[in-house]
Each structure stands twice: as C-alpha cells, then as structure tokens.
Amino acid sequence: MKKGFTLIELIVSVGVIAIMSSALFLSWRPAQGTFALRQAAFQLMGDLRRVQQLSLSTQEFSCDPLPAEGHTGFGLYLNSGDSGSYQVFENCNDANYSWDSGEEIERLAFSSGVTIQSFTPSSGGALSIFFVPPDPDTYINDLSSGQEAIITLTNGSSTAVVKINNSGQIKLE
User: What is the pTM of this model?
Assistant: First the structure.
C-alpha cells in the first residue's frame, strides 16, 4: 500500500481552505468599521480623562493675563459643523466656563470614517466640557450641576455613546 494523499483529498482540502478564507475575507470589512468606531470612542474617553488630569495637574497656563481664580482649567470642545474632530482648550476668559475662540491648544481627529452623529446638550450647535481644579468641578456648556453630556459617534452603520456627567464620571455605552 502506498502512503500519501490522493488527488481527491487534495482537491477537497484546498476547497475547504478556499471556502473558509472567503468567509473570513467577507466578514473583515464590517469588523474593521466596528473596530474603528470602538477605537474612536475610547480615544474620546481617554482625551476627556487627559483633560481632567491636565486640570488637576500643575500644568502651566499660557493665557496672558491669567483668568481669575476658579476660571482656570482645561476642557474639550465639540462643534456640529466639524463632526470629524474636536478640540482641547484652556480657558482664558474670566466670564465663562466654556470654549471661546482662540483658546484651542490641540485639535484631534477621529479614525477614518468615524464622525460625531449627535451630542446633547447642545448650545448653538456646540458642546463644551470644562474642568476646574482642584476637585475638578465639571462644567457642561457653562453649567455645573444637573447636566450629562451624551456624545454619539457613528461609522455609518453602528453607533457608540460616550457619556460624562457633572461629577466627572465618563462611561461608554
């Protein structure tokens, strides 16, 4: 008796490998979009936490002149007109606890294909989340209590929701 594979066994093996490879290839695209969406949601959560830490740290402010005590801090700004990115800012204005033009220190973009679908509460099509040391107090659109910011990200087919409340708790749903 000869040892080895018959032609039929080889054809069946190659056929099974081809079917499994095509199934994997066809499911790769949707999985890639879902991965990009989750990555963007974790990026947003990480940047919110980083901004919280900047407000707690001894980070030096670049405002000149410095705003009054209690108005210094860092925040995150989202604008419905720019759904593919957001800004990190430092507050240089004594009159509010939100983003003003010229306070941007960094602009961050989401992964390819991921955008902001919606956010609440919205003030003129924008959302400003601001942290005041030392606690840090969390201001959402200039309000320090009773607010929860809900940011919905999308990749066109799926959504991810990031929430932050006035106590500074950040979560992904």
Answer: 0.78
Containing 126, the helix (H) or strand (E) segment is: strand 126-132
Cα 105 to Cα 11: distance, rounded to the nearest angstrom: 61
170 close to 53: Cβ distance less than 8 angstroms:
no
Domain ranges in the chain? 32-172
Contacts of residue 150, Cβ cutoff 8 Å, sequence gap at least 6: 119, 120, 161, 162, 163
Q: Write the CA distances from 24 to 8, 30, 128, integer angstroms.
A: 25, 11, 42
**Mean pLDDT in consecutive groups of 10 residues from the start of the chain, 173 residues:** 80 92 75 86 95 80 61 86 91 79 88 90 90 84 89 92 93 92
How many separate helices (H) and strands (E) can be counted in the chain? 1, 9
Looking at residue 60, what is its pLDDT?
Answer: 66
- Assigned CATH topology for domain 32-172: minor pseudopilin epsh fold (3.55.40)
